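Any chance you could type out a protein's amino acid sequence plus the matching backbone structure tokens because I've never seen that pairing?

——
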Amino acid sequence: MTSLPPQPLSPLDGRYRAAVSELGDFLSEAGLNRARVQVEVEWLLYLTSHRMFGSEPLTQEQTSSLRALVTDFGQAEIDRLATLEATTRHDVKAVEYLVREKLSELGLDAIAELTHFACTSEDINNLSYALTVKAAVTEVWLPKLTTVIDALRTRALEMRDAPMLAHTHGQPATPSTMGKEFAVFVYRLQRIATQVAGNEYLGKFSGATGTFSAHLAADPTADWPAISKEFVESLGLTWNPLTTQIESHDWQAELYGRVAHANRVLHNLATDIWTYISLGYFRQIPQAGATGSSTMPHKINPIRFENAEANLELSSALLDSLASTLVTSRLQRDLTDSTTQRNIGVGLGHSLLALDNIQRGLLEIALDEDALARDLNGNWEVLGEAIQTVIRAEVTAGRSSISDPYAMLKELTRGKRVDAEGLAAFIETLDIGEDAKARLLALTPAGYVGLASSLVDHLG
């Protein structure tokens, strides 16, 4: 058998690339290298702008030309870094040499030794990961989550008055409205989205073991912690003053925990919608040309929600692993995080793919109010809760002498079917006030939804 041409190993880079490609701009190896170049360039500009070690600030033209190495970063730079790394066997050193080549091209060899000055590789890497992850989350993942939340909010408002039989433990239970049930997910996801939006992205810039030792040796008079803080914050990150060689990755653990939490709420949403489809509460809208089953032509499978389930599970598994392993580094540094952090894009990618499927899936279902009504009308026994509660209130108010109303309704309804006529006849026999009796006689399963509709207003 002949070998295939080179193929993507991950489905995120193959079958599903279109849905997740935006993440590649930040969380690919090229995206990471572009961020590394950015950090190296900005540190060099910082040092020269502060006239460190007798250097002079670059002209505006020189500054723009140097920053163009970042803004114009493309295939030529990707290829050159690959060539350099083949010799250096060190990815960050290759980035340093690329910047030095640019300085030489601009006639700035005099400041070449300020490239990567007093830096350990992790000073560059931790800031680069913080920049790329921050951009990926705030510019790609979080907007997609917000789009899904907005779509759910729209459906919640549309269906706020659509009564449905609830199911607790899979059994018929006190009715709700479909809109209120969707609103529950909107509320949950919005809280998590707010937490993700407020996540800190920390950075360190303090040398080989976090002590500023080389910095101090080069200039004992400089306030290196203040310089480090100013530089890190100039990149839009939060400064971490106390680290080993690495930034401790706690912010990453917090972020991935929050994304995994969102994944699990979305998984709950996907399984609930799948179940509502199986109950007939939602009809699936046929998509032109689509095939549900290779042998059963009538079928429309809920593939969007099934695909979302699987990808959310994969994402959470990987993000959980990242969150648990990244917070540990032996003594002052080990290299386990180098490999694990290269999979951040995979973890976020599976989540982004799931969000895309949920967004599409929500457009492919329609509420079947007739099915909702049939289920409600077939389960009058759910009014047993209302009846025994009203009797309790009547007993307390002195308008009834019934003993143990719960047991009375349990005997009438538990494990039994009760129709409208039978329940009405039962209510007529109750020793309760006429107003209470009238309220109970007017109740229907479809009308027994409490404040479900108005609760949707809590979405704002």
